[in-house]
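Dear colleague,

Thank you for sharing your sequence with our group. We've completed the structure prediction you requested, and as agreed, I am returning the results in plain text so they can be pasted directly into your records. Please verify that the sequence below matches your submission; if there's any discrepancy, let me know and we will rerun it promptly.
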Amino acid sequence: MKKIIIAVVSLLSFSMYSQSRYELQDTGKERLYLSDTIIQMAANKVITNEPMLIVDGITYTYQDLEKKKLALSKNQILKIVPVDKQKAISDYGDTEGVGVLILTTLNASN
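Please find the predicted structure tokens below.
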């Protein structure tokens, strides 16, 4: 039983840590908009919970987001589109199966 509790706590801690990489500049629930979207897509097996992001043509890997946070707020995001696995491989190389999300923001239309 003790091992199960430790495993659950570890999993939750890791999930919260990985979720923070996708936090937005907002406050409140809006701050988690992108990470909640990623969690939902991962639950539906569209992507993993550590996808590569393409924001207005700029690539951010999971590792990149450890060092640099996204300078985005929820109201700047126009759409979030998952990329088909085969298209992701042909367009972005081997993404190691993590999935790719394309984010289009208000800045892209300027």
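Summary note from our side: The chain has four helices and four strands.

Kind regards,
the structure core
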